[in-house]
Amino acid sequence: MSNSDANTERFVELLGAHERELFAYVYALTMNWEDAQEIMQRVRIRLWQQFDSYDEAKPFGAWARAVSYYLVLAFRKERSRQREYFAEGVLELVSDTYEQGVDQFVQRREALLKCLEKLTDEQRGMVDRCYANNEKIVDVADQLGVTSGALRQSLFRIRKSLQDCVRRVVRSS
């Protein structure tokens, strides 16, 4: 595989992993579905054009959001005669709040993964079947030989223990 192909493949992989998050970010800044879609087209193109300058040692999502932020500003300026927009200060506040939320989400997700490892195999199996695989509680309960109510109660206790564990892990980090 040539270096160009590897570069293209890496870009597509990173963009695919972050595209939904990027769209949510752009939408949060525009609060307009059509504008967000149009800006995302520009974002994809600009990210590809600037991908050679991306530092792999840094998070792709943060780099892509920075590029997106400036494209939202440019879009707003371009369309400012057509519509009223929030002041740039409000846009910065939304962006900062979004960034804080992303950081907290990542931290809580990592904590949850650690906490899931602490479950017994049986507990993890119930969680996987009922939440990851979306199997019906009635079907899982039948296969486990318990009532639906008993399974729901077990899942409630597991969720509570995971919630407590995530809080402890996040607090300690």
What does this protein look like?
Keywords: Sigma factor, Transcription, Transcription regulation. Residues 109-162 form the RNA polymerase sigma factor 70 region 4 type domain. GO terms for molecular function: DNA binding; sigma factor activity. It comes from Bythopirellula goksoeyrii. This protein is mainly α and 173 residues long. It has two domains: 1-85, Rna Polymerase Sigma Factor, Chain: A; 88-173, Arc Repressor Mutant, subunit A (Orthogonal Bundle), CATH 1.10.10. Helices cover 82% and strands 0% of the residues. The chain is built from seven helices and no strands. The longest helix is centred in the middle third of the chain and has 30 residues, at 88-117. The radius of gyration is 22 Å and the shape is elongated. The two termini are 41 Å apart.
